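Internal tracking record. Fields below are filled automatically when a chain is submitted to the structure queue. Please do not edit lines marked as system-generated. If the sequence contains nonstandard residues, flag them in the REMARKS field before resubmitting.
Queue: standard
Priority: normal
Entity type: single polypeptide chain
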Amino acid sequence: MRVCQAVRVDPITIPDRCNGPADSGNGGYTAGLVAVRLSVPAGRVAQVTLRVPPPLAVPLPVVTTGAGIEVYAGTRLVAEAAPVEPPEHPPVPPVSLADAVRAAAAYPGFVDHPFPTCYVCGPRRAPGDGLRIFPGPLPDGRTAAPWRVPDGCSVATVWAALDCPGGWAIIGPGRPYVLGRMVARVEAVPDGGAECVVTGAVAATEGRKAHVRTALYQPGPGGPRLLAVASSTWIAI
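SYSTEM-GENERATED OUTPUT FOLLOWS
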């Protein structure tokens, strides 16, 4: 057990509906909730590491530390966050909304999904309940999906949207993964009702780890506008 010599601040609570696996928080949404509590200096971005499955619907104490913040469930460290240098790699390239719609029609999760009620990509979530982002394969191995942004979209919602499209670049039948670490930069939160596109790609694999990248774009008459990017580490379970 880690002993914290730190200051407690208001706890965070992950709503029941924002699950990944049925009984724990969606990794991206949880990471986003944690990230918005972190004070990030100019020129840096938030890195969030999940240590155990985040409990749902219970207050999780947040403490500040010399390095950043930590989130607990009782004595268990659930997540920790710290400012880091932004990744230097370019964002995953955009695709058109039409190409994203075509890719989503072949979403593998329609046939075999390890967590079919996932808040972000679960096909069993009703319209207006989950985000219903269904990342399908592109010919070059990337994933893409359209996303109609819900009303009340927040920074945490954008982190959630950046989560699963990267995972589905590595998830396969009988090969589930969960989010372990995420670094994201959100330039703008889209308005409710906006039609956006999320793209994902595998950067590297290392044993049970997969390093993936995602980007969120909003199509427009002047070309796609980059709204947010993320780099994540997923762990095979």
